[in-house]
């Protein structure tokens, strides 16, 4: 019972203190004290009117792409054997069996009139054929490859040997 009486007293004090009116205190000290050099304060300051020197640091542009035009008809003389480009190849096999990949690679060398590339991209062994800068040329080889019995062949976009691609274009 004493605990209930103490709780009621605490609640009574809480509600009586919280229900009062706002107390305003006049801060007369701020108005009475003069600000030193108040004539130097300019509240109409605009930072855009400052005459700042031009920054010697120039911003760097990221992910810029330069557009260049190439004349592919005369570029064979300019391309050496080590030049690589993004182009197309025909993938005739993708397997996890290394022996199967070697067998298909050797068969493709005999049956097809194109460069054959074995690629290991863990965990797959891939056999790709040809080097083409233009997809339409890769599609022609795809039709020949399917006719030779590689029914699951498809075209992939990958790095190619640009010199071989130019040789193939000149032969046609």
Description:
The protein is an alpha+beta fold and 172 residues long. The protein has a domain of 94 residues: 2-Layer Sandwich (Alpha-Beta Plaits), CATH 3.30.70.1070. 34% of the residues lie in helices and 20% in strands. The longest helix has 17 residues.
Set down the secondary structure blueprint.
Elements lengths: L1 H17 L9 H5 L51 E12 L2 H14 L4 E6 L2 E9 L2 H13 L6 E8 H10 L1
Antiparallel strand pairs: 1-3, 1-4, 2-3
List keywords for this structure.
172 residues, alpha+beta, Alpha-Beta Plaits, four-stranded antiparallel beta sheet, 5 helices, 20% strand, elongated
CATH class of the domain at 78-171: Alpha Beta
Chain oligomer state: single chain
Q: Can you write the helix and strand succession as a string?
A: HHEHEEHEH
Q: Helical percent range?
A: 25-40%
Q: How many extended strands?
A: 4
In this structure, how is the largest beta sheet organized? 4 strands, antiparallel
Named CATH architecture of the domain at 78-171: 2-Layer Sandwich
Structural class: alpha+beta
Could you tell me the strand content as a percent range?
Answer: 15-25%
Spans of at least 5 consecutive residues whose pLDDT stays below 50 are: 75-80
- Relevant CATH superfamily of the domain at 78-171: Sporulation related repeat
- Supply the number of helical segments: 5
Overall radius of gyration: 41 Å
CATH topology of the domain at 78-171: Alpha-Beta Plaits
Structural shape: elongated
Mean pLDDT: 76
């Amino acid at each position: 019972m004493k605990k209930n009486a103490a709780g009621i007293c605490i609640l009574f004090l809480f509600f009586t203190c919280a229900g009062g009116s706002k107390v305003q205190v006049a801060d007369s000290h701020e108005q009475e004290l003069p600000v030193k050099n108040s004539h130097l304060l300019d509240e109409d300051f605009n930072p855009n009117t400052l005459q700042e020197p031009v920054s010697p640091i120039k911003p760097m542009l990221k992910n810029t792409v330069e557009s260049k035009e190439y004349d592919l008809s005369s570029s064979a003389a300019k391309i050496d054997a080590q030049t690589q480009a993004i182009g197309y190849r025909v993938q005739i096999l993708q397997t996890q069996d290394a022996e199967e990949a070697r067998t298909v690679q050797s068969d493709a060398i005999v049956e097809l009139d194109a460069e054959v590339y074995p690629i290991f991209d863990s965990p797959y062994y891939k056999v790709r054929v040809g080097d083409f800068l233009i997809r339409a040329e890769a599609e022609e080889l795809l039709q020949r490859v399917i006719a030779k019995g590689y029914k699951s062949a498809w075209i992939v976009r990958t790095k190619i040997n640009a010199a071989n691609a130019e040789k193939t274009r000149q032969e046609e």
